[in-house]
Amino acid sequence: MELMKLEIVTPNGVIFDSEVKQVTLPGSEGEFGVLAHHATLVSLLEAGVIVIDKADSSEVAVAINSGYVKVDEEKTTCIVDGAVALSGEDTDLAKALEEAKALLKSAEASSTAIATAVSKVEQIGKSL
């Protein structure tokens, strides 16, 4: 499977910058996946969870509160207001889960989108 570059940027700087197989994003019109050579697009991101399938087949989940994504054929860039890693290396999971829930609940999004994102965060917590 071909790889693409994924970059997630917050006001505090770059929090993820690596080659990935796929990324699933919480778009304003619903969740969508991006693979290498995806058509170019720009989309708003809602409060939710970004799920990253890394090159080594491990999975990383990052809760975000809002932002936007720019997809090109070779690179996907997410600019987000706030982000908390839910899974992956060097993560204190219990603390990250609580921070993710607080981040999502503070987002200015519809209550349905927030409830869906919080549910996804809780599912990730149960599966690890």
From TrEMBL:
Gene3D superfamilies, alphabetized: F0F1 ATP synthase delta/epsilon subunit, N-terminal
Q: Per UniProt, what is the membrane topology?
A: Peripheral membrane protein
> InterPro entries from the xrefs?
ATP_synth_F1_dsu/esu, ATP_synth_F1_dsu/esu_N, ATPsynth_dsu/esu_N
Q: What is its main location?
A: membrane
- Cell membrane among the record's keywords? yes
Tell me the compartments it is located in: Cell membrane; Endomembrane system
Q: Which domain of life is it from?
A: Bacteria
> What keywords would UniProt list here?
ATP synthesis, Cell membrane, CF(1), Hydrogen ion transport, Ion transport, Membrane, Transport
Q: Which protein family is it in?
A: Belongs to the ATPase epsilon chain family.
UniProt function note: Produces ATP from ADP in the presence of a proton gradient across the membrane.
Instruction: Tell me the HAMAP family matching this sequence.
Output: ATP_synth_epsil_bac
Quaternary structure and interacting proteins, as annotated: F-type ATPases have 2 components, CF(1) - the catalytic core - and CF(0) - the membrane proton channel. CF(1) has five subunits: alpha(3), beta(3), gamma(1), delta(1), epsilon(1). CF(0) has three main subunits: a, b and c.
Q: Which PANTHER family match?
A: ATP SYNTHASE DELTA/EPSILON CHAIN (PTHR13822), ATP SYNTHASE EPSILON CHAIN, CHLOROPLASTIC (PTHR13822:SF10)
What name is this protein filed under? Answer: ATP synthase epsilon chain
Q: Which organism is it from?
A: Sulfurovum zhangzhouensis
